[in-house]
Design goal:
The protein has 202 residues and is α/β, with parallel strands linked by helices. The chain contains six helices and nine strands, in the order βαβαββαβααβββαβ. It is globular and about 50 Å long. The two termini are 20 Å apart.
Length: 202
């Protein structure tokens, strides 16, 4: 049996203000100890505008953790695709995968907090369509070493090759947050059509 952690790190900690970043340092030390105890993985949330100083730059936080560990897998639970430029996200995720020596798990989702969509001035009704398009772009960015173009409803990219490629092939394992059976079924079909050889978990 293997054990992993699900974390919601905050910048502040008891007795320390958010601008000290002590909570993030405590998160790192906590996970270093977990690795020493034999834990397999640690997944971290992404949240914005909560007023609770939650982790908003999750990949940066996981990069710092990857630099201080050697066996612990680091993962996102989850990155909300509608809020991110898919090409920039693919580049950052691939960089983390390389510097962690292939220990990155790519957890993605559509988002659920109304206040976060409002803060980004994004209609929550667009979440499904934005997620689907981002999966298509990111999968191609991870797996194609040839230049390509994309012209979609929300994103357009012209004659690009996304660098660097990730270490894990065809790309880091993809985990998708789903709260409804119908959503899980649609997500599996979407990911399989995007990359027939992709490892998919839901």
């Amino acid at each position: 049996m293997q054990f992993g952690l699900f974390c919601s790190p905050k910048a502040d900690a008891p007795g320390f203000a958010a601008d000290t970043g002590q909570g993030f340092r405590d998160f790192s030390e906590f996970n270093i100890e977990a690795e020493a105890l034999g834990f397999k993985s640690s997944f971290s949330v992404e949240h914005h505008f909560s007023g609770w100083n939650q982790s908003s730059a999750t990949l940066m936080l996981l990069m710092a953790l990857a630099m201080r560990t050697s066996t612990l897998r680091v993962g996102t639970a989850v990155l909300v695709l509608p809020w991110h430029n898919p090409v920039l996200l693919a580049e950052q995720a691939a960089t983390l995968d390389l510097l962690s020596n292939g220990r990155f798990d790519f957890g993605i989702g559509k988002g659920y907090r109304h206040g976060e969509f409002k803060g980004f001035s994004m209609p929550q009704e667009e979440a499904d369509a934005r997620f689907d398009e981002s999966v298509e772009v990111i999968t191609r960015a991870f797996t194609s070493r040839e230049r390509f173009s994309h012209h979609g409803r929300f994103w357009s990219f012209e004659d690009i090759v996304v660098e660097p490629p990730p270490m894990q092939k065809p790309h880091p394992p993809v985990w998708v947050a789903c709260t409804r059976p119908a959503s899980a079924e649609i997500t599996v079909l979407l990911l399989r059509s995007a990359s027939r050889s992709a490892p998919v978990e839901s």
